[in-house]
Amino acid sequence: MTVETHSLIVRLPGGADRLPPGVLCWRRTAASPESVRAVARREAARPMHPAAAPVRRVLVTAGDVADLVIVADRNAVSRSRLEQGFEQDFEQNLDVVAAPWAATAPAATAVSWGQGVPGQARSFETVPVTGGEREFLAAAALVLACYEARDRVTFAVVPGADAEARLVTAEVSGRTVADLLAPPVVTTAGEAVLGVVVTSCDGPDEYVAHHRPPYPVTAHVELGGATIVRVRWSFTDLVHPATARRFADQVSRLAGRLGQVAPDLDAGRLDLLTSAETAEVLRLGDGGARPPGEQVVARRFREIAVRRPGAVALCDGTEQWTYARLDRESGAMAAGLRAYGVGPGVPVGICLDVGAALVVSQLAVLKAGGTYVPMDPGHPADRLRYLADDARLRLVIGSAATFPDAGAMTVVEPAELGREPAGPEPPAADDGARAAYVIYTSGSTGRPKGVVVPQRNVCALVDAVRDDLRLGPDDTWTLFHSSAFDFSVWEIWGCLLTGGRLVLVPYWTRRDSDEFYDLLVRERVTVLNQTPSAFAQLVRTDERRRGELALRLVVFGGEALNVRMLAPWFARHPSATCRIVNMFGITETTVHVTSETVTPSAVSSGSRSVGRALPGWSVSVRDAHGRVLPPGVPGEIVVGGAGVATGYRGRPGLTAQRFVAGGTTAGDRVYRSGDLGRLHPDGRLDHLGRLDHQVKVRGHRIELDEIRSVILDLPGVREAAVRFRAGDDGDGRIEAYAVLEGATTEQVLEACRRILPGYMVPSSVTALAGLPMTANGKVDMSALPDPAVAPAPAASQEGDDALAGRLSAIWAEVLKADVAMTTNFFTAGGTSLGVVRVLARMQERGLPKVPVRQFYRNSTLAQFVDLVRTTIDG
């Protein structure tokens, strides 16, 4: 423990001879007259032990130059008494005067943007400032508002060395320079990140009011009359040294500018960063040069097939496909596609579940020069029709028996396309800018929007990570995700373009964590790609099963990762044998953008970092006007480089809004993600959520406004609101509220199931007489009630037993709602992930294993109880 000190450095005219007789002090010799003041400042900052005398004096000399350093306990000696210490012997004449500041200082608060390094505290700088106290306070308010991402900020001001601290507030949004230069408003409550201590200074003497910063950021402003002589900044270790210096420089620079610009200028137009600083921040977020390589997917694949024709490319159950076979059969299908008129740029729908036919079809479309449009056969008919119409499809590879009628469009089975020999395959076009695929994402206007991604982007993604992740022919991957989810792009081409073996995971195996775990063990999978929600279930299964996994690499994507969920995994699988990589990405920037290896220490600290930009990619954080923000400051994540998509199919206005030209120093296009983030001083990125109504549900990006729009389009619905509530286990619930005029909540839910994919269907629909509103006339989302849950009827005689009670308790835990024997798990908001959780809890509590597919066929609680009872009796 150390004492809170303040100090005074006095330059002695005539050197040490100026020191009065009888004043005792320690003596130090500096190396040269020029270094006397530097040594004196170090002496002033040296801590004071609680058991020591309340005053310490040190004389620093070199030649005929001398500085007297007087350091005192600021709670025992006021500044006025400190200044008398030059001529008085404190040990004989101490008259303790407690400084009132210590008792009245407002509480300091945490620094959200500090990104400090433990042990690197008290970055202490002297920064020249032009202007006076008022300009300095206004500049401090502007910079603090930017760093805090607030329109109004509160900070502490101490108007004298021994004066009481006071809290002041400053409004910065929509204010002119003249407004900001007005005296700040004194407030009585709040916390402060920043403290400004204002003291007077005479000549060469230097007074420091606090050697231990009372706030995370403390500015010691010394005035000579009305002019600032110097500013000393001190920062605790809550603030990174680089961030501290940048904060101080920006306040100093703005303080000088405020007195030179027009008083009626909008203060928001003042740039925080200089052009040189902006360029430096952009360099921080730059992943480096894009690795050179082939830019056409089909040609890249052909190179591998020629080098390793006998190597296994696909494993579909018991069937093995070599690279030669995959190359041959995709070529035959490409010939069939050309016969249907598929050529350069022609979109082809592919509506197939995970299987060999899906991969063959995608490769065939690319060989034919077309663009594939993946569609999930499990999606509602209305959605499939919309995608086919919006993409202007004339051909869909899928099942003619199940694909909905969509007018003048041909649906052809995969087998029909490859019946005739392909003949000599024409060379793939040398055009990496040609679209590889169009994937549809949720749209705020009520309908999905198609993202057009060039082939060169896919190749660049593989090249960017191949060496770092050591991807190669010895790896076995899984294709786990639907082709309509762009994580599958990474799984398919990340494996096949590096010569790996791709294991195709059947539909029901993807929904049963035990079956999937068995597949991982049996197939000796080395590279696994998962959303955090899905992996959480695998962690539980691994704890219970403890099989011999061959995993060397797990890649997370699709949604935010709570690193603490990995603690039990690291306890069983050391990071040295199984590398965990968290990758932040966006469909519009080709799956992945950044990469971070997650370590046990990151788990302990709860890190939110998603790492640095991939080679060829770049990230920056911008404000609402598109200006680059400094590290630590939250804002919109903007992505540039090799992954930026062409745009949205048929949406030029939306494309121009989100894909912005000239967003980097090189003038390249960038994508405004709508994600909230902040940059670290070392270039790593924190992902902090969304700026708008988008959410991530089991890896799928969802616009809540799309769900709301669907509900509002229904007859009998007057108003609607939709919100998302995250769960503790990484999942969450979509909750809808509606003002109904003739419709029922059951009809609304049924319509949502008919139009929306399962992961977008609300868990509940609650009828309200009216939506709660804020004073600004917007829906008050925080005032929406808990979702309505139908009261559970009395249990039937046959269900009123111990087994039914145990199972209903598990259902209620997972659904987070009351259940009855008539409750349908999926109608009540259950999801595929919820099914896995129910089955896992059953096994944890000694109940028998039930196949996932049987759960789907027995989805009411009464049916499920009978199914489990039959399993026990059988």
Automatic annotation (TrEMBL):
Coiled coil: none annotated. Residues 798-872 form the Carrier domain. InterPro entries: AA_adenyl_dom, ACP-like_sf, AMP-bd_C, AMP-bd_C_sf, AMP-binding_CS, AMP-dep_synth/lig_dom, ANL_N_sf, PP-bd_ACP. This is Non-ribosomal peptide synthetase.
